[in-house]
Amino acid sequence: MKLRTALTSVGVMIGTAAIVAMIALSLGLKANAVKSLESWGNLTELDVEPAFYIPEEDRVIPDDERKKLNMAAVQELKAVKGVAAVMPIKRIRGESKLKVGRREGYIELVGVDVRESAAYRKDEIEKGTYLTGAPQEVVVSYYVPREMRDVEKEKREARMRNANKSGGGGGEVYFSRRGGGGGGEEGPAPFDMVGKPATITLTREYRIDDELKLEKKDVRVRVVGQLQKSENFRYGSAVYAPLSLVKEMNDWLNRSRGEEFGDTSSRRSRDKNQDEFVFDEITVKVESREMVESVVSDLKKLGYEVWSPARELEQINKFFFVIQMILGGIAAISLLVASIGIVNTMIMSILERTKEIGIMKVIGATVYNIRWLFLMESGFIGLIGGMTGLGLAWGAVELVNYFGKAGGLMDSLGFGGGGEEMTTLAVIPTWLALFAIGFAFIIGLLAGIFPAIRASRLSALQAIRSE
């Protein structure tokens, strides 16, 4: 009987281990997929632009009906339930270069609403502070200092290389490093540009007698902060400045020389355009990840198109839910077989202990006592099998994670670039461990109901007389 009970518990153990391991694998893959998705951007930030097409109506929206990203749109977006902040963005429409000391590099100049963005962007500052609203302040992204070049040094190294080559190539070879420390993300440490004065050089084109001319303008600024490193390379070379400063620069870039020399018709046309100031992009900050789906739906109803990594999150959740159901269902078959084994074991136990049941009834045991005795026995068979199965599943998960990492499986699946948080293929959360133990115990109880009822209905006299 002991061997039969042990084998029954082993059946529960295998079924529990299979379910836990299968679900742990799907949970781990889902978590890694979500983290990979987060590397493309914050899941609570939505990039909003005017909708150009209505799929339901199969219709292209005309220009006069299309939304404009102006201040009226900002106020409309702020009124949407679940929106915590609306951050309009304006970019420089021309070539811009940042100079700090002898170093320089091309940048993407982005104008932001300081008041709207400060509450969220200030936590992303690695050095210095975020924009305070002063017109000549800028904040650089993490990669900007690493892309700044010491032009004079590169010219000297080039001259030395040429001299060495002309001397027969026996001299020492010099290599130019891009950015004076920007030789890639893992190159030498870049210089610290926070707190230093800088110059933004703008270049605009104009024609005189069909001859192309270039004109430059220097704008003095001060670098007050640097953002933290981010896996989102979308704004890798971005320099953030107040909207007013970027608007002023765009005005100069778009202004023709005729306006500067008194062409009133050109000036009137420009003033008319400035009355309707349109942003290049609006970023909406949602209060929580759970509200993203409803906010996206509301924005689409208002006539906006929304891009965010969170839009893919719903599809990921659906996909892995199906995977969990399939894997869990396959593993549950073994647990069903184990529950049938429990029923068989308990029925055999009744047949072997019939006289014992009769004696217990004669000395005062009630139907309730007999029933609960067999129910608890079957329940503990399931509990012991569940606990040992959980231990077996934990060992299997550790092996999967070890060989997955050692064999490069994480990289082949695209999960290798997310840092230390993405080094596991499978994970057993606390709720899954508790669920597995409780589920195995309940399976044991359910499997013992029929044998327990049968035992409680035995006649005491017939049970005593049985051999």
UniProtKB/TrEMBL annotation:
Any Pfam family the entry gives: FtsX
User: Keywords in UniProt for this one?
Assistant: Cell membrane, Membrane, Transmembrane, Transmembrane helix
Q: Which InterPro entries match?
A: ABC3_permease_C, MacB_PCD, Macrolide_Exporter_MacB
Query: Where does the MacB-like periplasmic core domain start and stop, copy by copy?
Result: 5-144
State where it is primarily located: membrane
The region called Disordered is annotated at 153-194
Question: Could you name the domain of life of the organism this protein comes from?
Answer: Bacteria
* Entry similarity comment: Belongs to the ABC-4 integral membrane protein family.
Name of this chain's protein:
ABC transporter permease
